[in-house]
Amino acid sequence: MKNEIKLIVSDIDGTILDSHHRLDPKLQKVVKLLKEQNIPLVLASARSPKGIIPLVKDLDMLEFPLVAYNGALIGYLEDEVFQVLSEQTISGHELRCILDLLKKYFPTISVNLYSGMDWLVATADQWVKSEAAITGETPYVCQLEEFVKKSPSVHKLLLIGDEAENVSCFAFLQEQSFLETSFYLSKSNYLEVTHKEVSKEQALHFLTDYYGLFLEQVMAVGDNFNDLPMLKAAGLGIAMGNAPEEVISQVDTKTLSNDHHGVSTAIEKYVLLKIEN
C-alpha cells in the first residue's frame, strides 16, 4: 500500500548517536528486523562518508546507500570502494572567492574542506582535533588554496570558530550574494557551506526515485533545523525528543530523545509493530 513505510532515512548526530556520540545499542536488532522486511535504513548526515561508514558497518547495512555532506554526495561502499550515485560540488569560482574572503576577514576561523572521502585542513587546530575526536577521522594537512587549484571538486566546507565569530561570518558571507552557494549554521559555531541545490530534502527525493517509492512511504527522523525540510517532505516526519521545540512543532510527531533510544522506539512503533498487526 502507498501509505506503508518502505524506507527510513535518519540523521546521525543527536539522532542515532546519544549525547556521548555512542550508537543506540538497540538499533542493531531493529535493523536486522527491517532487513527481513526489505526496508532500508539510510543514514543522512553532514558528515563525510568516512564519518558514516563505520556506523553503517556496525549496523551491518552496507547494502544501503548513505547520504554524506547533507546530500552533496550519495553512494555506497562496495569492496572498500565508495561508489557514487549522486553528487553536487561547490562552484570552483565561488569556492576560491570564499577562501579568499575567509583568509582576509576571518583568519582565525577553522576552515575544513571536504572532497569525496577526504577531509583537508590548513592546520590541525583545536577545532579540528575536536571534530576528529567526534567523527573518528584524520584530516590531511595541506595548503587549501593549492588543493583547490588542482582539484576543484569540493563537496562541503565546514567553518568552525567561536559562536559570535561564526555568526558574524555567516551574516557576512550571506551578504556577498553568492549565486550558487548556500550557508547555514548546523550548530551555533558550525557553519556549513555547500552548493545551493544540496539539502537532505533533495536527498530524500533522490532516494525515493532510487527505490521506486512515493514520499508517503518514507519515514524520516532528525533532531535539528537542517533536518526540517526532509522531515516535512517525508510521509512521516519524526523529531527527536531532544530537538528544539521549533522543530518538534513543525513535524508529524516526536519520539524519545537520543539518550533514550528514540530512533529504535520510533521504528518499532511506526514500522515494525504495524507490520506485525
UniProtKB/TrEMBL annotation:
Family annotation (CDD domains): HAD_Pase (cd07516)
Q: Which Pfam families does its entry note?
A: Hydrolase_3 (PF08282)
InterPro entries attached here?
Cof (IPR000150), HAD-like_sf (IPR036412), HAD-SF_hydro_IIB (IPR006379), HAD_sf (IPR023214)
Which range is the signal sequence, renumbered to this chain? none
Q: Which PANTHER family match?
A: HAD SUPERFAMILY HYDROLASE-LIKE, TYPE 3, PHOSPHOSERINE PHOSPHATASE
Can you name this protein?
Cof subfamily protein (Haloacid dehalogenase superfamily)
- Species for this entry: Streptococcus porcorum
